[in-house]
Amino acid sequence: MAYVHLSEHVSIWFNCALSGTSRPVIHILNEAGHPWTGTLLARLRDRDVQRDRAGFRNTLHELGRLVGQSVGATLPAARRAITTPLGQAEELVFTEAPVLATVLRAGLPFFEGMLEVLPHADSMFFGAARKEGAARAADGSLPIDCGYASWMPVQGRTLIWADPMLATGSTLLHLHRSLLAHSGAPRRVIVAGVIAWRPTLAKLERELGADVWSAAADDTLDERGYIVPGLGDAGDLSYGVRGG
Q: What's the CA gap between 29 and 126, in Å, rounded?
């Protein structure tokens, strides 16, 4: 398992591309010491600030942009010649469309922020949630209920899972197994989140062979499967408490 600071990830992937090799890497953005990441996380975590539901969604969206820019720096790109009104320029632009996937409903604001900086991506949406009240298995996983799925071909492509709360990873791992059977095997898997339970980062890297980005990593998971200190339920804080 390899952890890197935000400033290092571009050079790592550039060097891997030159050598023809790659290795999964874990990126924890707030451990790179950038105060804007910490400022956004402070807004999300503060229980008083959380009362502003629109503000909570907007902050998730902004973190999606932040994480998406970091992920995007490692995606396939090439120099493109541009004619300006005054001459010629050359810019680095994306050359392939990844597939960006999220789980309804908590993932939407974060997903939309990522899509804003990865506008060429195809999108997949899934309706899935942990079974409320179910006990965690010995490996820490939780049983998952799945419903809606908007499948997209992923064979040989880059797949990016956008999931703001990476607690046990059960939902994502369950959906990824279904995706392999339905849509083929991606060339590269990326997992992007806002707050993760630290052991889950290594679990996703190991079981999915994924590069993992998270704005923060916390060290505790409670008996309900919630990250501590975490921020609470991202879906409820974004859209209201579920009932019925």
A: 26
Identify the CATH number of the domain in which residue 235 sits: 3.40.50.2020
Residue 29: closest CA among 154, 189, 214, 188: 214
pLDDT at 16: 40
DSSP reduced 3-state for 218:
strand
Tell me the residue range of the domain where 17 lies: 3-239
Q: What pLDDT, on the 0 to 100 scale, is given for residue 225?
A: 86
| pLDDT at res. 34 | 86
**Residue 105, number of CB atoms within 10 A of its CB:** 17
Assess if residue 244 is contained within a domain.
Answer: no
Can you tell me which residue has the tokens 């079974």? Answer: 131
pTM, entire model: 0.85
Give CA–CA dist 131/170, Å, rounded: 11
Of the pLDDT bands very low, low, confident and very high (cuts 50, 70, 90), residue 53 is very high
Q: Is 126 in contact with 103 (CB distance < 8 Å)?
A: yes
- Cis-peptide into 105, omega within 30 deg: yes
